[in-house]
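Justification of computing resources. Each target in the renewal requires a structure prediction run like the one illustrated here; the chain below, 362 residues long, is used simply to show the kind of job we budget for.
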Amino acid sequence: MTLDSLCREAALQENTLQAYNYLHVMCFFTDKDYAYIQATEGENASTQLYTYIEDRLKNVDDLKNTLGLINIVNQAYLYTASEMPDFNTYKANQILEKMNAYESTFSDEQKAQSAYIVSKMFRKLEENKNVFKDTRAVGQEYECLRKVLANSNDYKLLSYCQSRIGDSADKEVVRAYKKALQSNKDKQSLFNINMALAHIYEKQSQQIGFATAHSSKHLSAEKAMRYLTNAYRYSDKKARMQILKKMAGIHLNIGNFEEWKNLKTVIALKYLKGEERCWALNAIGDKLSDGKFYQMAIDECDKAKMPVRAKLDIKEITFEKMLKLATNAQEKSVYASSLQNVKSQKQQIFMSLLNGKKKTII
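Resulting structure tokens:
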């Protein structure tokens, strides 16, 4: 019973080779059996072994359904992965009916996997009809994918369904992801599912219009933020900056500039270094017309280890912005003097280049 269960699971994972390996264990072939197979099949003995496995076990009542299931999965795979001249909707529906006959013995996840296997046949049929068109799931494929969404907690399967169905079934996709969150314990899966939910709500929050406190735009943004926060808990260090960037983008979209500023500052000071940090602080200053961030960029530029020419480029652009933003004569005088000093240094480096004194350039 254990081997049979493993065999069925392998078949539904489309690993029929492993399924036959489990069946092979139950055959108890003798040395004489192997000698006969080798003599009969010659160099094809290993590839034809499965026919002898089927023949040995065909009268074992407890394995008839398993053998039948493997056969169905193999047929579905052949129709999906190769160009079979006799493949048509009638054949695909036959396989669907045969697969459905096993449903009473399947777990929910196995029902989802079987529906996924069959869905790919109907996708192939649709693609054959629309060779030059990128099609979305329709008809029988769509119904199969809905069954996957209703039964699976596997992120990879749910993500596949989402990519095939598109935005038209967001509610069903969201329901499936939320159900998967409740039963998943794998850290990577929890991260992926939370990110997927956040992406759906983020798209919904990007609708045109003002984000009043109770508008659908604002509510969707709040939901996106909630799932991004959950994703951050399960993320590795490499993913955290991207999550914070998404959070900042959502706050900007709904006009929450204070939170946007805080997040962008954290990103700049915690996740970026050198030139990137300086330009990021410049960008915050540009968005808010806030000279404080230009001064932070100058300070970070002084502390950073980078080529002198890069430092001067940053300072020149930053002081120009500070000069434009200045509101009193004293500030303007200070920034103008600093700007002129930077330009003079750049001019000296340029003249050294012309005179061939490359060593002066650091």
